[in-house]
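Narrative of activities, Objective 1.

The group set out to show that a structural description can be obtained from nothing but a protein's sequence at a throughput compatible with the screening campaign. Below is one input-output pair from the validation batch, recorded exactly as produced.
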Amino acid sequence: MTRLKALDPQEATGRSKELFDGIQAKLGMVPNMMRTMGNSSAVLEGYLNLSDALGKGILGSKLGELIALTVAEANSCNYCLSAHSFIGEKLVKIDTDSLHLAREGKSNDPKIAAALTFAKSLVLKGGIVSNSDVEAVKSAGYSEGAIGEIVAHVALNVLTNYFNNTADTEIDFPVVSTANIQ
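Output recorded for this entry:
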């Protein structure tokens, strides 16, 4: 049972209603996570703004989805694993092997693997990474701007993981459960 209520977009008012209308127009639905975030329009708007900004970044949607899976697995967030597995496979067209490897912070592509290893290190070390962690991702070919975006993707996904784990958000995607891979 959920711990925080998901708002009905038809009954929402004010800024949350405006945000829900925009989400509905873009996605054709308002996912439960966003419906629950709508209890605070500031939370929902902050999430949407950062997500939108990162969507325009240099990392691209494929790496963004893979980072989301790495972070979700590390934080045991079934909602985010389910959502990003669906989005990754159906919308971004990532193969299932790559989706599964990303949950472990791995990839068959060495450059992507470096980004996912760095993302996992950020989560497991609470953001206090070492010089060698940063050098490894730089050596893989990531610019300082790209490294900043990896950090921002991790932060965005930590927000959604913590939010969904707190709310116990009802999963409205095909369910994927964590393997608790560390």
